[in-house]
């Protein structure tokens, strides 16, 4: 029987990410006037930092720092900034080489951490969005760009049907590549790579082919890897916009709150997504996961305490550092399944006034002090020298 641990108020909402729309509106106003099961017999994961033959990996991370000497393993780690400017925090000991942030002209580079620029799409005219991006791309050569945030998430995030999303993606991709041929473009991350959301991604690929007469160009595949319920009116990830009702009913997964840190589901979703990529001729593309974490706030669910979050955090990191497969993994990274990932989050928090916020924040956004989760994150990455 599936639990329903939804709060009494009926609310369980994603914390709104820092709005890119306001920045876009300002810039536009100034400019216009003048993203199968683990196959039997797959290789046993290698030790972190080594290839299957025991040699040291030669993988060059997608996001690299020119300001600090991170180890190859540390270079895979990032964080997802939510509330304050990242240079508000003492992030050096995190040993994370990159962070996700809404696109801006001069993003900070604290402790050598490189920005990955997220372009929020909701509420912005797809034919005018490049006007606002022009000054931003000029100041950020060679960056990795994420086109959208959870377009499959209705209301709370970008909330776009496949046919709507591909217009944004096409316009932004070709604009960025024209302005900066060294830019890397990643698809917006779906909430979780479940069968329902893989169907949504298939609809995106089909819509792009139908609209533009060619396959959708994706430099980097990007997902979030949360573990949530899928139902149109209950807690969780909801139903992706544009997916037919009968398909959604057939494919959606039912999960309980206690599944949110289920490491087996977490791992299986990665295997499933890499299988999906391989089946669509995308195996030769890197995979990044820009949101990894435990969402259930401890204020609602005391069982998700620091120890439980740490157990999941370390198990997830162990898996992503080491999991390889000779038929599914990225050939440029010794067949590893995942190339880089970002913990969610750096500085989110539960707000009892709005009933919003998630678990796992590494720093407290009010006091700016490191949390127990941040200490655990730092302890793990410090061991990767």
* The top level CATH class name: Alpha Beta
Number of domains: 1
Mean pLDDT score = 87
Q: Counting H and I runs of at least 4 residues, what is the number of helices?
A: 8
What name is given to the CATH topology? TIM Barrel
CA-based shape = globular
- What's the number of extended β-strand segments? 8
The ordered H/E elements are HEEEHEHEHEHHEHEH
- Structural class, judged by helices and strands? alpha/beta
What name goes with the CATH superfamily?
A: Glycosidases
Radius of gyration: 20 Å
Main β sheet profile: 8 strands, parallel
The helix content is: 25-40%
Strand ordering within the main sheet? 5-4-3-2-1-8-7-6
How much strand content do the residues show? 5-15%
Low-confidence stretches: 1-56
If classified by CATH, what would the architecture be? Alpha-Beta Barrel
Q: Gap between N and C termini, in Å? A: 45 Å
Description:
It is a single chain. The chain is α/β, with parallel strands linked by helices. The protein contains 8 helices and 8 strands. It has a single domain (44-382), classed as Glycosidases (TIM Barrel, Alpha-Beta Barrel), CATH 3.20.20.80. Helices cover 28% and strands 11% of the residues. It has an 8-stranded parallel beta sheet with strand order 5-4-3-2-1-8-7-6, with helices on one face. β3, α2 and β4 (144-149) form a beta-alpha-beta unit.
